[in-house]
Amino acid sequence: MIARRLAETRARVDAAARAAGRDPSTVALLAVSKTHPASAIREAYAAGQRDFGESYAQELRDKAEELVDLGDLRWHFIGHLQTNKAKYVARVAHAVHSVDDGDLARELAKRVASQGRAPLRVLVEVNAGIEAQKAGVSAEALPELLAAVRGLPQLELRGLMTMPPFGDLAVARRVFDRLAALRERLGGAAALPELSMGMSDDLEVAVAAGSTIVRVGTAIFGARE
Question: Nearest CA to 209 among 23, 20, 25?
């Protein structure tokens, strides 16, 4: 079942890329495995998936331990991260998509340094939908945060992430376009190669707006447990 859903989702991403005049290989599929068991991740891995997204630090820690035998599996942390839990993420994550303030960036850098690992890839989360309840840095504060991340050699700045309001594709498209425009003003793809945006319900509009990473959970794994 998961293998079939994974293939269907990849086909959706590829079709969306072609419809936008893009090479499908320029859009990565991140399988959001949060709240799903390690067995489901193993099933997706067996079907060829390598990038998995988690939103809770301790859940990521525990799954990484359980699946340590899958040596080329890449963990992406995509949820809100408190500084006191950064140690769990810095130890195992391939990338963190949700850096939203300087304190968190510095804590991640400190934890990476203490483990002597290669620089951790990070994306800065932007509140491009300007929602009070959403995490993410404001557009106005974004340049300062980008400069802070670039000043930490233990981190590798890879791009930007956002989450639009749920349920309205027209609004989602405006939010995605806003993030893409912000990237252009701040150096374009050369400076910020990745745009992490789009989920199960809106991945087509995200790809049309320039997303390079879509974060898909329900369409692959089904409803959360």
Answer: 20
- Say how far apart CA 221 and CA 225 lie, in whole Å: 10
Report the alpha-carbon distance of residue 52 to residue 44 in Å, rounded.
Answer: 9
Query: Which H/E stretch holds residue 34?
Result: none
Mean pLDDT for the stretch of residues 97-120: 97
pLDDT of residue 131: 60
Per the listing, tokens 């369409």 go with: 219
| Dist. CA 199–CA 103, nearest whole Å | 28
Confidence of residue 225 (pLDDT cuts 50, 70, 90): low
40-27-98-156 Cα dihedral, nearest 10 degrees: 110
Report the candidate in 190, 107, 195, 217 with the shortest Cα–Cα distance to residue 154: 107
Q: Do 67 and 38 contact (CB within 8 A), yes or no?
A: yes
- Spell out a b/e string for 94-117, using b for 16 or more CB atoms within 10 Å of the CB, else e: ebbbbbbbbebbbbbbbbbeeeee
Nearest to 145 by CA among 163, 157, 133, 130: 157
- Domain 28-192 is of which CATH architecture? Alpha-Beta Barrel (3.20)
Where are the chain's structural domains? Answer: 28-192
Residue 223 confidence class, pLDDT cut points 50, 70, 90: confident
pLDDT band at 129 (very low <50, low <70, confident <90, very high): low
Q: Tokens 């400076």 identify what position?
A: 191
What pLDDT was estimated at residue 56?
98
